[in-house]
């Protein structure tokens, strides 16, 4: 009688073992499965195991079999992440600057739980090293949830926005008054999370760091028709902006030596049209003019040139002049 109850739930236990302890990289041999069930007080042999697995497969469980070291081994496909996939997620969480340490540790632990018996393998120090610059705003979850709700409802949102001084104290912009914005899209860019909103005042996009927001609230007021029409492709936003500093959109022509083509692809994507004359490349792109755009050009030490329009060339020269004056 002591073994009767486990026998009744054998299929559930077998499914649990396959789900939590196997994957394509970690199949479990027939004899090991039988032994594990036996250790739980469940009688099982090769013939019975094969029949039980066929029953589970008939109920939709994607259980596969492969030949390993002169023996059949089983694993469950598709029900769990691969260890390599989970490692990528864990590494991304650790690198995400906007997540404070406490929330990072909590999320990493929950993701690692998906690895079942391979949890320790996931949490071991890997070969990837991060320059962790974690921020301290514990409200990022609530901020994201509220802004997602506003975007789905096509409603306005309000929040306080702050910077940090040398003592890590929050200094609120607009003397602590609320910002009221028309949310368009959330973008994760260079380890930070941003809200892109439409500004009716400036008739342009504005960007805000979500880890610099406080008291985010959805307002029961619809966004304007202009904002509603601003359906954004997040990829286009990250191509046009530099360090997510917004500015006036402008089409510019840039020339540069072939050696900088990799950096250009990294910024604007590999689908960008490039023309080449000998070792000089030319592109035409729409960017949002800002000091960070000019800083991106400047980092190439004269190898990247703005060809047109003239007003952008003049503005860039003026910025360079001011830099030289302060050296």
Hey, roughly how much beta strand do the residues contain? 25-35%
- H-E string: HHEHHEEHHHHEEEEEEHHEHEEHEH
Mean pLDDT: 80
Uncertain parts: 125-132
Shape: elongated
* Radius of gyration over all CA atoms, rounded: 28 Å
* CATH 2nd-level architecture of the largest domain: Roll
Largest sheet: 6 strands, antiparallel
The separation of the N and C termini measures 88 Å
Number of strands: 13
CATH class of the largest domain: Mainly Beta
> What's the number of helices?
13
Structural domain count: 4
Within the CATH hierarchy, at the fold level, what is the topology of the largest domain?
A: SH3 type barrels
Please identify the structural class as seen in this structure: alpha+beta
Q: Specify the helix fraction band.
A: 25-40%
Structure notes:
This protein has 327 residues and is an alpha+beta fold. It has four domains: 4-76, Winged helix-like DNA-binding domain superfamily/Winged helix DNA-binding domain (Arc Repressor Mutant, subunit A), CATH 1.10.10.10; 83-123, no CATH class; 140-232, SH3 type barrels (Roll); 248-325, 2-Layer Sandwich (Alpha-Beta Plaits), CATH 3.30.70. It has helices spanning 4-8, 10-21, 30-39, 46-58, 83-95, 101-113, 119-123, 140-153, 225-229, 234-240, 261-268, 291-298, 310-325, and strands spanning 28-29, 63-68, 71-76, 155-164, 170-172, 179-189, 192-199, 204-209, 213-222, 248-257, 275-277, 280-289, 305-308. The strands form three sheets. Strands 4, 5, 6, 7, 8 and 9 form a six-stranded antiparallel sheet that branches. Strands 11-12-10-13 form a four-stranded antiparallel sheet. It is elongated, with a radius of gyration of 28 Å. The N and C termini lie far apart (88 Å). Residues 125-132 have low confidence and may be disordered.
